[in-house]
Design brief:
The protein has about 500 residues and is of the alpha+beta class. The chain contains 23 helices and eleven strands.
């Protein structure tokens, strides 16, 4: 039964965009080619009556996305941070999606809290407020902990949100399969894998215990970062559908007039937000992956406060090194090295020509470096790089999707604070520092130490592992028991020597 339902859902999406007047605005903002524009309008027009009307008091794009549901709202949140892509007017309009959606009643929130925590709101909190922010998945109330009197933010999931997201994700899977069927060239982009990745991220947002855990880990990683704060989690007042944390007191990052009135340096804030994100991604491999203005405040002392940890990104150490080398190569304009890194990482098929790929990368980088500071954009770089890698057969790297998407969002936030920010100049010291720490001699020594530590743990088992490997990869006649003993003695001795050598090496490094 899901197939027809999902088809109807996709038809209704196009119909809603057309019916609310958002279709034309979005196509104009994206500068869609005439053929694409005409085809979409032609297909959507006959089905307008199936589309949602939405709240007619809202502007068209906002009206369409809020009517379509939470997954579409998430997409609108990303676009709201990119005025250079969709224009300042549309970006400002979409910014309402971040934390100013219609709330659900406070009594519904209280009932949900009582069911989740096993106690009434009145016994747990005092001064429990009406919703102070409402987003696509949850809303937030300000309160005081009755036990300590501390100001806290209480986040509560929207009723039925799990079912609503499930409907959208199912429809997205159908759209991905249709794209793969109708456009074989798109299979290189692995649309279905991309949706699976998105699904995992979104479902993680629907269990607030996971968000609380993410916030705790993120706080441990960033505790020494100057100019950065995180509210602490109140574990005894948190559960699957409710999360309580310290109240973040500051000026909203998206309110430039209020930031100016408070005396904050917006240029410095723009630089800080970009450098902090790069530090978290490269140094820790664990970063806030939803850093739009609705999830950021500025404290009275100028510190950046981040909250809403439902979407966190993780990349392993090897991928971080590859990504840093690619960024560093572009910063240094060493396109040959950028090309080599792609080949070494297996991102580009080995049968392609590295020199030709390097020349193609130069065509990506040089125009960007020729721009003035206000036009230099990592978002543009990613767009151009996508076009080049497509031509050279590079597949979509699902582990980098969240990193690349967040980089685009953070750049949008930084540029909204300081339109003339030089993205490369700000990023360079962070990337250079990571390169020095992760790819030099000291890093090699650390890697060797980790390898020896693993071998040491396996030391007692090495003889039998080696013997089993030899038995599996050889086909000798079945020996009698006596003929196996000399070989076993040799293997046991070799394993003991290797294990002892590893242990000695580790002791010498400590």
């Amino acid at each position: 039964m899901r197939g027809p339902h999902n088809i109807l859902r996709l038809i209704r999406t196009g119909a809603t965009l057309e019916r609310t007047g958002a279709m034309g605005l979005i196509l104009d903002a994206m500068d869609a080619p005439p053929l694409v524009r005409g085809t979409l309008r032609f297909l959507a027009w006959p089905f307008q009556w199936l589309g949602y009307r939405g709240d007619r008091s809202q502007p068209p794009a906002l009206r369409a996305l809020t009517a379509l549901g939470p997954a579409y709202i998430k997409f609108g949140q990303v676009l709201s941070t990119r005025p250079d892509l969709v224009g300042g007017g549309l970006a400002t309009e979409l910014r309402i999606l971040q934390d100013k959606l219609p709330p659900f009643p406070v009594n519904v929130a209280k009932d949900s809290i009582a069911r989740e925590l096993g106690d009434s709101v009145e016994n747990l909190f005092t001064d429990f407020s009406e919703p102070v922010a409402a987003a696509s998945i949850a809303q937030v109330h300000k309160a005081k902990l009755r036990e300590t009197g501390e100001d806290v933010a209480v986040k509560v999931l929207r009723p039925g949100i799990e079912k609503a997201f499930r409907k959208d994700i199912d429809a997205f899977y159908l759209a991905a399969r249709v794209i793969e069927l109708l456009s074989p060239s798109s299979r290189r982009l692995r649309p279905t894998d991309v949706i699976a990745h998105f699904e995992g991220v979104v479902l993680g947002e629907l269990d607030l215990r996971l968000e609380a855990s993410s916030a705790s880990e993120f706080a441990a990683n960033t505790s020494k970062d100057s100019g950065f704060q995180l509210p602490d989690i109140k574990w005894n007042a948190s559960g699957r559908r409710v999360m309580t944390m310290g109240w973040a007191d500051g000026v909203a990052m998206g309110d430039n007039a209020a930031l100016d009135n408070a005396g904050h340096d917006r240029v410095k804030l723009g630089e800080n937000i970009l450098q902090l994100f790069l530090s978290h991604a490269l140094r820790d491999g664990y970063f806030h992956a939803d850093m739009h203005q609705g999830n950021l405040k500025v404290a009275a002392n100028g510190d950046i406060i981040a909250y809403d940890f439902g979407i966190m990104g993780h990349i392993d150490e090897y991928t971080r090194r590859v990504y840093a080398e690619i960024l560093y190569g572009f910063i240094k304009r060493d396109y040959r090295r950028v090309a080599e890194v792609h080949f070494e990482a297996g991102y580009v098929p080995a049968n392609r020509d590295v020199d030709e790929f390097a020349r193609a990368l130069r065509a990506v980088g040089e125009p960007i470096f020729g721009m003035d500071a206000s036009r230099i954009s990592m978002g543009n770089l990613l767009t151009y790089l996508f076009e080049v890698t497509e031509r050279f057969g590079m597949e979509t790297r699902t582990e980098l999707i969240l990193l690349q998407r967040t980089m685009v969002v953070v750049e949008g936030v930084a540029r909204s604070l300081s339109p003339d920010i030089n993205i490369w100049k700000v990023a360079r010291p962070v990337v250079e520092s990571y390169i020095k720490q992760s790819i030099g001699p000291a890093a090699m020594a650390r890697d060797l130490g980790k390898t020896l530590a693993v071998l040491a743990r396996y030391g007692p088992r090495l003889p039998i592992l080696v013997e089993n490997a030899l038995i599996r990869h050889s086909t000798p006649p079945v020996p009698d028991k006596r003929s196996r003993w000399p070989r076993r003695i040799i293997l046991l001795s070799a394993g003991a020597v290797l294990g002892g050598s590893v242990t000695v090496a580790l002791l010498s490094l400590s």
